[in-house]
Amino acid sequence: MREHGKKYEAAAKNRDIESTYQPKQALEIVKKSAFAKFDETVEVAVRLGVDPRHADQVVRGTVVLPAGTGKSVRVLVIAVGDKAR
């Protein structure tokens, strides 16, 4: 009895378990070895070596989702004088 299917075994031949790959090279291997009939997901964990307790080492970013969040954007402004319309 096999542990994995034929497609998995064929995809596993494209990589070496003992090696470490650069991110670009790893992504190319993942794209070559995709065998599902749908868009597969890849999870990446990166150790940055920063201390989040220090203000100068905080890492922030934004992501644009392909289909959005489905929510409409609402803006509330509280102003006085000429700025109020």
Q: What does this molecule look like?
A:
By secondary structure, this protein is mainly α. Helices cover 20% and strands 0% of the residues. The chain contains two helices and no strands. The protein has helices spanning 6-12, 23-32. It is elongated and about 75 Å long. The termini are far apart.
Helix and strand content put the structural class at mainly alpha
Shape: elongated
Query: Which percent bin holds the helix content?
Result: 10-25%
User: Measured on Cα atoms, how large is the radius of gyration?
Assistant: 23 Å
Average pLDDT:
85
Can you summarize the main beta sheet? none
Query: Which percent band covers the strand fraction?
Result: under 5%
Order of helices and strands: HH
Total number of strands? 0
Total of DSSP H or I helical runs spanning 4+ residues: 2
Low-confidence stretches: none
What oligomeric assembly is this protein in?
single chain
Task: Give a quick set of tags describing it.
20% helix, single chain, 0% strand, elongated, 85 residues, mainly alpha, 2 helices
At a glance:
This protein is mainly alpha-helical. It is built from 2 helices and no strands.
Topology summary:
Blueprint: H1 6-12, H2 23-32
